[in-house]
Specification:
two-stranded antiparallel ribbon, alpha/beta, Rossmann fold, 6 helices
Length: about 220
């Protein structure tokens, strides 16, 4: 099975690469030197999907992220979409008022937060009108076992038109505006990057010595 242009969801893309190049590096952390292979990404995505299901999440439910860039951040983000849930990345530079609006507006049921943003999140949640589960993570650490994933889990059905990501504007001219991306539109963005940078299956990527994290 090759990784052609027929994939329409993030799950199909991850599964295909895990089958074709299971031991090939998908990401390398410049902070720790840890390597995540395509097979590792698939395994972690399935595990995360199981834990989110055990936490009571249903297809299309929103999962928010208040995190800097990191290996685990990428795993959580892609794993959420892989599982059939909607990823909501939040701007760590936004103030508590804007974050409060976005968290309330997106109807997220769970939020992953890095330790240094716990206080900011707590302030933002003070104005949110419903309960939200908070899971603390270390972006340089392993996937936290916040639930016991059921064995033999059947993944939620997933299609090209299913929602995958909700992104908010900066809110510089008013309240932040939300834009929904489907599974197929996220895949299309990836294809555009491959085409514009002329990437192939034989490209090699050197590990940067410069952190890409938010300041």
């Amino acid at each position: 099975m090759g990784v052609g242009m027929e994939v329409k969801t993030i799950r199909e893309a991850v599964d295909a690469m895990a089958q074709v190049q299971p031991e090939t590096a998908f990401l390398i952390s410049p902070e720790t030197g840890t390597t995540l292979t395509f097979q590792g990404l698939r395994q972690q995505s399935i595990l995360l999907a199981g834990m989110l299901r055990a936490a009571g999440m249903e297809k299309g439910d929103k999962v928010a992220f208040l995190l800097d860039n990191g290996l685990l951040t990428a795993q959580l983000f892609l794993g959420t979409i892989y599982g059939g849930y909607v990823a909501v990345p939040l701007n760590v530079r936004a103030g508590a008022m804007q974050l409060s609006y976005m968290l309330d507006h997106c109807d997220a049921r769970l939020v992953f937060v890095e330790e240094k943003y716990v206080e900011l999140l707590s302030e933002a949640l003070g104005s949110v009108r419903r309960d939200m589960r908070v899971v603390n993570v270390n972006v340089d650490g392993p996937l936290p076992a916040f639930e016991e994933a059921p064995s033999g889990l059947e993944l939620l059905p997933l299609g090209a038109d299913d929602e995958a990501m909700l992104i908010y504007s900066s809110g510089s001219t008013g309240k932040p505006k939300g834009a929904i991306h489907t599974q197929s539109s996220v895949v299309a963005h990836g294809r555009n990057s491959i085409k514009s940078h002329q990437l192939t299956g034989h490209c090699w990527f050197c590990r940067s010595t410069t952190s890409t994290r938010s300041a």
